[in-house]
Amino acid sequence: MFSVSKQDGSKSPEIKNVKRLHSGLSSLGITPQRTSISKLMLFHDLLVDANTKVNLTKILNWPEVIVRHYLDSLSVVMAAPSLFDEREKILDIGSGFGMPGIPLKVMFPGNDLVMLDSVKKKVEFIDFAVKEMNLPNVETVVGRAEDIAKKRKHREKYSMVVSRAVATLPVLLEFALPFCSIGGTFIAMKSSRVQSEIDRSENALNLLGGQIDRVVNVEDKLPFLPGRLVVIRKIEETPEIYPRKAGIPKKRPL
Question: What is the pTM of this model?
Fold first, then answer.
């Protein structure tokens, strides 16, 4: 379905200004390799082209992609400095077209990454992009979190689980904590209005074996991104009955 488009000889290649990207990376304490920036630029080209075939995202303008896709995804490092050590086994739930997983893999390539989404066409794009970018140790899974979390290969096998814009926190906890190893971390990327969701999450946390460690304000380092990172520590094994059957967590949150 996806392929690399040939350049139209009559058009000059787009010149991408990377100053905003470098500035944001510096604020996050990330020193990129030259190939890392090139790979993010390549991913943007692949995304723009693929979006003409499959509706992946409405945000395609390069300056917006830098802020709302790349830097937003990489803000996870504020909650997980262990990413710098590059020894994490990461699961990205609801990856969509590759956020936050792809930028995290590009900047911290030593971490293992599994990207899960229920939409096959989106996962096919991720597979295509990963191959074109030559990213090592990336696996993709097509399916619903409620089903995949029941499989022994994935259950409580990840030291870090991340998710962006998938569901409200009580629902997201049921999706994510069954994947997280005891002592591991789940990072929920949420808006600045997350406190009301946290207030409704006590029962889910108790049932699923999680505990909120802290809430990180992304604006502290990236003032133009009003997000919050809710850091949940997995302190106990999740009972086998969770997650419930596909669809039930959203219909009847814990």
Answer: 0.94
